[in-house]
Amino acid sequence: MPSDLPKTMKALVAYDKGDYRFESAYPVPECGDDDIIIKTEGCGICAGDLKCYQGNSTWGDETHAKWVRPPFIPGHEFLGHIVKKGRNVTEYELGERIIADQIVPCGKCKFCKSGRYWMCQPHATFGFQKENNGGMAEYVRYPKTAVLHRVPEDLPLEKALLIEPYSCSKHAVDRAGITIEDVVVVSGAGTLGLGMITYIRQMNPAKLIVLDMRDERLAKAKEFGADIVINSGKEDALQLISDLTEGYGCDIYIEAAGHPSSVVQGLQMVRKLGTFVEFGVFAEATTVDWTLVGDNKELNVLGSHLSPYCYPYVIENIANGTLKTDGLVERYFQLEDWEKAFDYATGKYGDFKIAFKF
Question: Which residues form the Alcohol dehydrogenase-like C-terminal domain (predicted)?
Fold first, then answer.
């Protein structure tokens, strides 16, 4: 692998919400003594990328501080090969294929020092801040504190691109604490929901039920291990779950759709003393009946953020086929066609995951 890099590269650059621009001569990142530069192999488009482009709360609103720091290069579902490394980097060699957690922990705050690095207080992340540009570019810099993982060279790109989203899926499921006695409902059968489904299948719960409003997604959910699928746009999902559980409701509800109606539905659907896990990213504020959460049901309401300690399991089990991946990444775009790629990434043409290939 050459250590001398070009001066410029192709990149998608975010200047403001709704103001993303393809640039053919953006500066290639510099490599400091503790840094690694990869040549990007591919980068998936996340729902979070779409909602950021559309102007969600990461840009700041009445309840959220501005989190993005433009101009930045989007993309956090990426991997590549090392083409340059700083003189202090000894653990990795040129040519190795690597991927990183989305979070770039500081290593100094109370969360990092206690092993909870994914909630790092400064909260630097790839793909939303100019200090840590993302994978929608030909080259990416991994700084010293990036949490890196090797990726098998023989793992096909369409599978490797699912490492980051599936790791997020695994963390959400782990938060739920599923047992073999639980009736589990997953709301949303997009890529991340499907990652949850194939992982939950390994736990063999009493029932794994999946809700979505698209029949093609429900068919894939069934293929990936769901026992029962329900089109909540055509059927009364609340009544069906009640009937299946003798009127009690499901034990665990994992919200992976990122829509207010899915939240309201889940809080109604889960039984007393049940567990509700919120995973979805929202484009708008969501209001819930907190009396239902507290006085009526005494629910365990849990959030899920990023993918701590999940990559090794996910890489191994995608590679050995335990985690199903077939048919999720089938369409690639060139970076120049980013507007078309973002349009396809909405899923309105039937795709699960859209990615850029370099």
Answer: 192-319
